[in-house]
Amino acid sequence: MTKHIKITLKPKKEESILRFHPWIFSGAIAKMERQPQEGEIVDIYSANNDFCGTGHFQLGSIAMRVLSFSQTDFNQDFWTKKIQASYDMRCAIGLANSSSTNSYRLVHGEGDSLPGLIIDIYDKTAVMQAHSIGMHLAHKEIAKALSNVYGDKIENIYYKSATTLPPYYVSQENIEDYYIKGKDDGKYLAKENDILFHADWIKGQKTGFFIDQRENRHLLEYYAKDKTVLNMFCYTGGFSLYAMRGGAKLVHSVDSSAKAIELTKDNVALNFKNDPRHDAFAEDAFKFLNEMETQYDLIVLDPPAFAKHRDAIRHALQGYKKINAKAFEKIKPGGILFTFSCSQAINKDQFRLAVFSAAAMSKRNVRILHQLTQPADHPIGIYHPEGEYLKGLVLYVE
Fold first, then answer.
1. What is the pLDDT of residues 231-245, one digit of tens each?
2. 90 and 223 fall within a common domain
3. Among the three residues 31, 50, 68, which one is the final residue of a domain in this structure?
4. Is 256 a member of any domain?
5. Which residue range is the domain that position 188 belongs to?
6. Same domain? 225 vs 157
7. pLDDT tens per residue across span 101-111
8. Looking at the chain, which runs of residues are DSSP E strands?
């Protein structure tokens, strides 16, 4: 068994790792054999000198992300077994072998016991992102593991981490996005429940497309028939397309980004060419809601993360309250509101309280129809509840 740098925790600080939580905070460290390099693999011991786990070391509040709770050699076999386990789960839930959906998340960080790693599959292309220096240092072994598991079913592996690793490290190491295997133009038609989307992993956000709203979009389709629909913060127009397929009589898509509006229009044309039911507007969300004259039967609020870290929570909650209050004010009686938060720093109770406060301000009777979360290919580790980043409510507004 390979020997790594030994890090000893303060008394009782091993309790979370004994419950299989994958994070060790810097304040829990009592001593280190020597100062590890960022991304280096370290062994973690309790104050009583009992082995607790092995993981990647990093500077910052979260000092170690645990990869294994038993003594392990991090060789090629380790990475292949991890990728195989993730693949087997996606097969079990019917995604890796689906005829109607060819785009899904293969590895979701802590949810797949691989903290700091994201891998999305777009048919024959895998897009890999490292969110920790440790995963960056192992990315070639991980790419080989992908090839070992998928064989010729994956032709291209694109490594896209220049924007997800610490900026000083990217600059210092001259990290650039590149194809580890194969090469294409980076533009692809992703298929989701038989709806097509343009995905661009070279220039697009995240890995090229937002996969995590797939099931929630499908639910909206069920409610859309004969309704007028407003899709705020539309980005690629995902909810708009499902609304149109569900039989909506009018769909308006709004985003502050002109580029996003063009992308939405392209996706609508791809699936519903020359369909007069859809229109799109490059406009600030609050300005649009304030000035709109049309009332809608169904409104979608899917904003970008208002809080990307804990220091921004208070401000973010005010933002969620304000945008939802405006939607409650404007929606038709008997309307349905799909409202979301993708801020990991905000838990579902905080989000619900913000929406509750907005409903109270509107003085309208509101009922919860559904409580939504991320899909099964974005799993939440049972020992890591912080992984539940996507929260949503479907509300009936009298």
1. 999 988 999 999 999
2. no
3. 68
4. yes
5. 76-192
6. no
7. 999 999 999 99
8. 5-9, 23-25, 29-32, 41-45, 51-57, 62-68, 103-108, 117-122, 125-130, 156-159, 178-181, 187-192, 195-200, 228-232, 250-255, 278-282, 298-301, 335-341, 366-372, 391-397
